[in-house]
Amino acid sequence: MKRIPIRVSWIVCFFPVLFSNQLLGKEQPNIIFFATDDLSDWISPMGYSQAITPNMDRLARAGVTFQNAHTAGTYCAPSRTAIFSGRHVSTTGCYRGQIYFVADPEIKPLQVALQEAGYKTMGGGKLFHHTFGQIDFRGWDEYFHRDESAKLEGWPLKDWSLDTPFLPQPYPNSVYNQSDRPTKAPWFLEWGPVLNEHEEEMADTKRINWVCQKLMEPQQEPFFLAVGIYAPHFPNYVPQKYFDLYDRDSLVPPDYLETDLDDLPEHVRKAKTARGRIHKHLESIDAVKDAIHGYLASVSYADAMLGRVLDTLAKSPYRGDTILVLWSDHGYHHGQKFDWGKHNLWERTSNVPLLWAGPGIARNQSVDTTVSLIDLYPTLMDLAGIPVDPELDGTSLAGVLADPSTARDRDVLLPGLEPEEYAIINQDWRYIRYANGTEELYDLQNDPNEWNNLAGNPEYDEVKTKLADSAPQTFAPPAYQLNDYRMVTNGETFTWVKKEK
Q1: Which pTM does this prediction carry?
Q2: Does residue 13 carry a catalytic annotation?
Q3: In which residue ranges of the chain is pLDDT below 50?
Q4: Shortest CA distance to 368 belongs to which of 68, 21, 8, 28?
Q5: Does the annotation count 94 as an active-site position?
Q6: Most buried among 33, 138, 360, 485, by the most CB within 10 A?
Q7: Rounded CA separation 50/47 (Å)
């Protein structure tokens, strides 16, 4: 596992302005909950030297960076379900696109728990899945959508559409989508520059400007201000200036091993060999660096949006009593294991940024022990002085945030896309079990690329058994079939109704 040295630079002049170690006359801290989409560990605070992320560096210097944090779901919908419900999808049964508040309305989501404890709750952007009917409106005093018309359609995000007036030209813009590509999804592996003058019109920019507006308004209660941006999710359309930060020809792709898929279980090998056609095609048209360029430009745009929030917080009346946590719903493969995407149980999907700063949180610290995004809910409860629901699946990180020297490694669970499918992860090992009983095992200290599957070696049977003992004893069945329900709108509200057989 990577070990990241602690950085020390201009701490004295910066910290007192933005974050204080103590609450200033308030019993509960304000909370800014900053979510990104598809942001992998390709950021400077996590040791990725090619990323230009000065504001994430700035946040890392102000607080604690978890180097070994892992998603709680292999793609957007199950990950965000786990975060806001505080329960793994193996508990809720929401393995794919099932919606937790439809499956089990009795679950108290994060925003309701905070609202009941006296918080003013304000949300906006991609906190939940981006398609219609996904936002859990319970517990929000305010939820922002930049597009009034979308509220009549079930509140889909609609970040990009073909009628967006400032799409890169020509469309499609990426060399991948201009070629005879193996996949035809319209926005997948699509990248290109937007004119700089259109930055303020972009969906994510509008969401961040809304957050900044809220930070300058008087708030009588402690607030939970949550925002989700779509970047760096495809399409990687960001202003030209973020592309200009990078020299495409100087970018270094990750290491690829030609025989990487040979030792995988048969069904995985077949699926990823087919998926690998995408990477092979990118190589054949010399577009791997172009795809990485588009992604890194989007990462730097996301970083700039964080910078706007940090700058506004520093000028606001809340700078001394506000916690800010930055997270990503999951990581992303850029050709590693010949995959471009997520939806799997490997490191590139699971390892995500998780940065905290604010009152009571240590400064300029890097923690390498294993944690999970399922820990967000109980940690926020703990930091806010709210009793932690014992039915939550995560573990509070509040003690580690206050004193990182107390961190101890543990096994964390990453459920897969169906019952009995999961990964167990710690600093040393990743154990993967599929629903059909096939396995993978990786020695992360000696094989960080996960190139050598040790599951078939009897020498490691005891390791596998011990890791498997950390998995749930039972897995909930799928909560419902995705086509069992339909969304019904009523003005700006919606409900999900079970279809009649």
Answers
A1: 0.95
A2: no
A3: 1-16, 24-25
A4: 68
A5: no
A6: 33
A7: 9
